[in-house]
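Q: Protein A?
A:
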Amino acid sequence: MPSRRDPDKTDATPTPFAALAPEMPARPAAKTEPTDATDAAEAMPPLPAAPAADAANDAIDVIGAVDAPDDVPVSERRSRAGARKVIPAAERAVNRPPAVPRTIAAMTAMQDDAANPAAPAASDYGPEIIADEPRPELHIPLRSLVLNAVAMYAIVGWVPSVVLVVAQRAGFSDTVSTATYAVSFLAVGMLGLAMLPLAWRAAFHEPAYDLRLSSLRDLWERRQAGFYRSGRPRRNGWVTASFYIIAGAVFLVGVAAFSVVAARGVAALYLVPFAFLLPILGRVVSAAILVGYLQRGLEARVLPVRAALITGVLLGAGTIIANLILLLVPDVAPAGDATVRATNLSNILIICLIALIVGLLSAWIRWRSRSVYAAVGFRIILFVLQFPV
């Protein structure tokens, strides 16, 4: 409603403050109400243009960076005046409230984590994810790897059997034949222990860490595979079983040696090392050549499960050949040897099947536990139990 006073008369009347402000700006003219619809439309301020419905403007509205200064944080940017703050997904994930435990055990575990920050967080609600081990690098052709492994295995695994057959056919006594058999195991075992590290370094450009006793310490450190929902450590079943296998092999070898000493008396002084311990040395080295050297090299070219199958088949085939050298010639297996005397075809097939299954299981244990000692210990247990390995 317009004022009833005359603005011109009001401006012309002097006031006490006129001297202080001689150049006061003139009062703007009073606004009058519009008389028609046209004047009302002209008096109204223009409405902001509606945003376009295309994908580009939609993306800009979502991001919320329309004409935003560079120094304004992303969380404070808005797509338009009065719009809600647009928070990126990464910032939402960081500022997300912690998970609420659903059980008393989970709540207790989270309290333990708060009391001990160095412990792994139990709010993950499950075992932690362990990344797969990187594949080893093979620096020689795959054909050379296989040929080297087969040649070393043939020297260590087949030469003692051939020497025993030759000694029996030459008419030597059983004592001389057994001593020759044991000495051949010692010779080829030492030769294999000398060749294997050199071949390992040439193929992988690193020392044979898997064949050292320190690998057992690394195996012990890999026992833990994660955590249960309650926060309790979760053990790796294969690694734990490999320790039982190694301990069982050492225990059975000690028990078998003690039983031979108790049964034979003085004769056990030569029988235990020659007819028992040295054949074990030869079998340990021959198995380490395939499940250690060959299987590691195959894992660099093919899948680990396929490498285990190939190594198991080759190990079983090598054991079958070594047994056939003794089985096809009657009465050449010395006392105390794990080879079963057999002359008919059915027994030979059973022995071959057992050797193949044991080879596959040895390679499988090596793959799952990542330990050469576990695979070799498994074969030693079966050798002491008189299996044809």
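Q: Protein B?
A:
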Amino acid sequence: MGGGLIKAITSYFRGFYDDIVREDTSDAHDAEQHRDKNGVRGELRSKLGRAIAERYTVKKKLEEGGDLAALDETIERGIAAGRDDLARAAIAHKATLSARTNGLEAAITQLDREIQEYENALADYDAGRLSEERLARLTKELADLEIATPPGKHGEA
């Protein structure tokens, strides 16, 4: 009878410890899922922040770009003074500045789209509606964009 009692007690404690281990494993799994969710959200917020910062930088470059009207005036003065060399230099600078301005404006437009996409993704994620398909597509598109455009080189001419 003593052997049966020991087996019963052993079985009881084994079941008790198995329950504890299962509960700990379940808690660890839940914590890992929570970390994964926060990681995805954190990555989206990080990319959103970088896009906003880059847009600010590009916009500053655009604002500091130069005055096309002043170049027109320089061209006119060069022509009036018979200084073709001055007029040609101003025309070349104006063409360069125009191309750079167009590139920066295109970069701002692209960054605005990225910012909107990140904001939408965050809103969807926060609402719990971000499907894994859409997240995979968005991640792939963003990875392709980062490969296609080196950092800080969005549309600069």
